[in-house]
Every structure is written in structure tokens, then in C-alpha cells.
Amino acid sequence: MVSQDNLTMEQVQEKMACLREVFPVVRLLDGAALEQMEIGKKSDADISSSCECYAFWQKESPCENCISMKTLKTKQQYSKIEFIGTIMFQVFSKYVQIDGKDYVMEMVKALDEDTILDAEGRKKLSYKLEGDNDKLYRDALTNVYNRRYYEEEVKSWNRPAGVAVIDIDDFKVWNDSYGHRTGDSALLTIANVIRNNVRKSDIVLRFGGDEFLLIVPGVSEEIFSKKLNQIRKQIVESKLPGFPRITLSVSIGGVLSMGEDMEHAVAHADRMMYLAKTTKNKVVTAWDNMNSSELPGETDEAQKGVMEQILIVDDSVMNRAILSDILEKDYRILEASSGVECLDVLRQNGFGISLILLDIVMPEMNGFEVLAFMNRNHWIEDIPVIMISSEDSERYIRRAYDLGVSDYINRPFDAQIVYRRVNNIIRLYAKQRRLIRLVKDQIYEKEKNNQMMVSILSEIVEFRNGESGLHVLHINLITELLLEKLSQKTDRYPLSWSEQYLIATASALHDIGKIGINEAILNKPGKLTKEEFEIMKTHTLIGASILEGLDYYKNEHLIKLAIQICRWHHERYDGKGYPDGLRGDEIPISAQVVSIADAFDALISERVYKPAYSYEKAVQMITNGECGSFNPILVECLVESQDRIREELLKQKVYADRCAECSDKITKNDNMSENSGGGGNEFQSFDTLMNRYIKTI
Fold this sequence. Notes:
By secondary structure, the chain is α/β, with parallel strands linked by helices. It has four domains: about 10-135, Beta-Lactamase; about 145-300, Reverse transcriptase/Diguanylate cyclase domain (Alpha-Beta Plaits, 2-Layer Sandwich), CATH 3.30.70; about 310-435, Rossmann fold (3-Layer(aba) Sandwich); about 465-665, Hypothetical protein af1432. The chain has helices spanning about 10-20, 30-45, 65-75, 115, 120-135, 145-155, 170-180, 180-195, 220-235, 260-275, 300-305, 315-325, 340-350, 365-375, 395-400, 415-465, 470-490, 495-505, 520, 530-535, 540-550, 555-570, 590-605, 615-625, 630-675, 680-695, and strands spanning about 25-30, 80-85, 85-100, 100-110, 160-170, 205, 210-215, 250-260, 285, 310-315, 330-335, 355-360, 385-390, 405-410.
């Protein structure tokens, strides 16, 4: 059987025939001809005899931004917009290998108004692309996501999530001893265990040869720890077909990211995994504060694996030995003989190190240079340093403290003083980490509760308004993406990540005032009369009044933002909006962003009084001022973010459809249970349904 990586021409022709159901033009470009054309282009040689790909686009020379050439070089899929006259085309290029030779497959579709508004065509196209992307982003052996999916789709995440690196213990030994088929079987078994213990919304990736990455959005430390230990336990209990004596095990490192850079979170989890690797078959998380006394029944070696780690950095073997003798009973000791070696150990173990004992005078890189490097990389904020030196001048001591050391100890050592100071610093930082974790947990719970209540209220409004429940989700997502782009474009509106998050959350309440509007006006299919429109406009004031009446919560920042958004999301930048006729930056930026998000979603969504416009048409209408005047910077943000908005909204719709399917299945099952004799209180049934629904998604 021919693999997907090396197809036959017959297989490719069959694939192209299927694609022509969606794309009017599907063509193959010979890789060798493309390369010859590129060589001729660079050398100004005659290329008339080589591939005339450009002639298809009615051009006299090759395209400057040839995506087929880019696809050939990188073997990745690309898309671009191309024109013939005034007609716009979307072009997709995909690398294929046919009978051992390189080719590029181009798929071309005209983007006219009819095509854009054709829902069935959009559906077909989405399914085709989704299928291709799925193959592109899936590991061929385990069918979980691959490293490419992480690099292109996940790496840029900054959402709160549990992140775990899962590494197979002794994988190389199995491969060398029993062959690669056994190794493949182990990978498949472990991948299935991980996948069976997580939700559909969680992400499982094969991150390396014997390494998996697990990302669980919106999870607490307690639940995440239980989940990781559950995965570890089930892997140990699993058996490989044909090899009953082989016991599988994994080392797992886990962290909780509260919205920081995903790459940083993965690196942190990786360091935790290497700590677990010291004893194997362990789960080590960033919030672990275990010590030997908490591990009854463990061997000495296992206890050492979870001890706090101290790094001793000194070019003197004798000094390292003295310090090690003082501390090794209660701490796991790492050593480095120079500043350069110290940085290597830090890169390998990172935040798994609880304390550094650092000498000043060393070859290659001295202690002050190490401290300067730690400051540049912000390591000094998480890893305390005690300076150990025979230098006792005030200048040295002051410089050490200026560079962030926690303490300074002069040689010769007093064993009791060294031990006490080390112990005190480690305990202090442990308490600090616990405090930070507690605050993070409280923030997370508060944000989760805020989101839940806001979602309930907004869904009530949408239900009464007769609009799709997706409208609230759309506004939240579009607001979030516009704020992200705004923060990248200008410092004019200095919004922190948490501020952006709160604005996006509060956006869901923008139309809560419609609770007070007569349903006949809300759901009128035709144009409103002047009198009806004046009544409709009052929803801004009603919404603000409702929220201002929440005496107990009115000082909460979320509520203050929601009040701004409710009252002023129909104001316009030129002062021609309502209810107060505010102009320019008199309108809070929160209301400005939600205003343009609301207008855009109203255009691309079907309403009782209008059909849905295409994304391109909606952007054009807003840009041309057909929906009123908006902040020019926000209009630029919308234009630049439209492709990402389209992509994320499509993902959101797919997810919502799947949730609806799950909910329908659960409802059907509950009805069957009731018909077979199970009754119960109406409220109990609802609670059961919700709990099962949450578990399902």
C-alpha cells in the first residue's frame, strides 16, 4: 500500500476529482519545473521553456509572491488572494509527492458575491479544508495532534490552562531491546490512555519521539493533579499486546498557566518532567511542596527525587564538598564548577532549583555575570541566590544585593549559619509561591464565576431577543481579538491583559437592557417606525440602570466596565450616536471596541429584518462608514484581524454544534431513562443534565 507521503498519479487524480466538487480549478505543478523557473528568475535567464505557471494568471512573468514555490520549499500548505482583472480568486497550494517526485497541487476558487453568500458552498469548502488540515496536523501513528499543530495553532495561546509534558520512561531501551514495533505499540497505548482521560476540548499532542504534551484549558490545580495521576496510574496498569511482562511508565511534569506565554509554560512543565524523571513513574507539578516526611514507605532514592534542589556554584572542589556535606541530608545537591556550567544546569533544570549558592570569583564567568544573566532572563525573580564568598568588602556586598541576591555569607563557613540561612530562604520562597498560587486560584474562581453569571444573563437576553445564542459568544470573541490587535498597534490605550479579559467578559452584557423592551418591537421583521426606534434606543439606558442598581457589586471593576458598555456601545466616533452624543475618546475604549464588534457581528449574522452579509462586505460597509463612524484605529484593527476573526468564529461554531449534539444526546438518554421508570424531581433532572453536559464537553 502506498503511504500518504508518496502517492501514485492515479491516487492524486482521484483526489483532484473530489476537490473539483468545490474548486473549479485544481491543477498540478511539477516541482522540477518550478525550481527551474526560480533559477531562471534569479539569474535573469530565459524561462520561456520552463514551467509557465504565471501564464495561468495572465501575467508575463512569475509572481513575486509565488506560494507554490514557497510550498515546494517548506512542504507546508499556504493560501493567498490573486486577481485576474477585477475578479478575485482564493488560491490554496499543497505539497504532494507522486511516484517519488515533488509536485504542488493548486486549488483555485473565484470569490464573487454569490460564492460568498452561498451557505452550502461555504460548508463544502470548510469540510474539505478541515479534512486536509486534520491530516496535516495529526500524528500518523497515534492520531493525536502533532508538533506542527503546536507550532502553528497552539504556541501563540495565552489562555489559562493546565500544561503537562508526559515522557515515556526507558523508551529507547524498549526500542533497542524489542524493536520499533514494540515502541510503536507503547506510543499508541499511552496516547489512547491520555486521550480517554481528557475532554474533547483538551489538546493532546505528540510533542517528540517519546514525549506527549497535554493542554487542559480552565482547570484548577487540584483537578489537574488528579487527572495527571490518574493518567500515570492507568498507563502503569496497561499491558502491551504480546509483551505481558513489560510494564509501561511515564514521568509527568505539570504547571498551571494563568495566561502567560504558552512556550514559557511548556518549558516550565518540561523542567518539572525532568524532576519527575529522577525517580521515574512520577507526577511532579509546579505547586508540589513535598518533602521526605510526607512520603512514608518510599525508598531513599525516591525520597531524594522529590527533595528541594540546591545548586552549588564554586570553582573550588573543596568548597563544594563542604557545602554539600552541610546540606545533602535534607536537600538534593547539584554542582557547577563555573558560571558557564551554572547556566547550563539552570537551562536544564530551571525552576526545579530551589536555591543557588554562588561564588563570586570564578573562571570564564564570575558570580556577578551570572547574576546579571539571571536578571536579564527574569530567573532571579523565581530562583533565590545566596552569595558565598571570601570577599567581604562593602562594595562587593552592595553590588551583590543590587543584583538581587537574597543573602550574603562570608567564608570560612559556619555550618549552622549556612544551614539556617539556606533553610529560611527556601521556606520563605515556598510560602511566597503558595501565596501567589492562592491568589491565582482566587482570581481564577472569581473570573470563572463572573463568566458563568454573565453568560446566563446574556443568554436570557438573546433568547428573548429571538437572536442566535452565538451572538454573545461572537461579541466576546471579536472584542477579545480586536483588543489584542489594538495593544499591538498602539500605546494610546494602555490595557493590561487582565483589563482586556474583563472588557471581553463584560461585552456579553451589552444588550441586557433589551429585557425592558417590548417583544413586538424587539422581534419585528420589518423596519422600525420612528417611534419604535426611539423606544429601542432606550435599551442602552435601561441596561446601565439595571447594573447601576446592583448596590453590592457596583464598585466591582467588571460591573463598571459593563455599565460603560451598556450605555455607550451605540455612540459613534463623530458624535452622531446615542444616548449621549459622545464624540471621539469621550467614549470609553471598552464601549468603542464592543460597538464595532456588535456592528460587525450584526452584519455577518442573519436577523429577522435582514440576511447575513459576507465578511468582506461587512468590513467594506464599516470601512466606508455605512454603519456610522468608528475609531479609525479600531477600523484598522478589524481590517487586519478579519481573517483570524473568520477562522476563530468558524471554530466556535463547530464547537457549539458539537456541544449541541452532546446536549441532544444527553436529553434523549434522560428521556429514555424516565420512560423506563426513572422519575425524579424536575430540578434534580436539570442538575444531572448540566453535570453530565459539562463532563461531556
